[in-house]
Amino acid sequence: MAAEQKERSAKTARKRVALAEEELRLRVRPGTRQALADLMEWSGITEQGEAMTLMIHHLHAMGSKAIFLLDPPRHEFQISENVAREFRNKSLLAIQKDPGDEIIEPA
After folding, report:
1. 3-state class of 103 per DSSP?
2. Minimal CA–CA distance to 36: which of 51, 58, 56?
3. Given phi > 0 = left and psi -120 to 50 = alpha, else beta, which region is 11?
4. Which of 10, 35, 69, 77 has the fewest CB neighbours in a 10 Å radius?
5. pLDDT digit string (tens) for 44-68?
């Protein structure tokens, strides 16, 4: 039985080499894992690899018009007036300590 297992493993390894198969690994946080679980449940897919492979191929088939789906959300920073004022005041103090620097006020 051990020989049969080794033969199957060797055959599988040869097949992977012949097909240029490559293993991709992915670490995700719970929210991403849950999103994948939801997608798999909705579609009836039971294998994670199958679900991810199908998503990659379907997204690729959509072409460049689907590029917005790969645009990660970015945080917008809103600097409060208090923080801006404090930063400006500390910057002016630092500039005053170094003679020769000029202060150019924005228009």
Report:
1. coil
2. 51
3. alpha
4. 77
5. 999 999 999 999 999 999 999 999 9
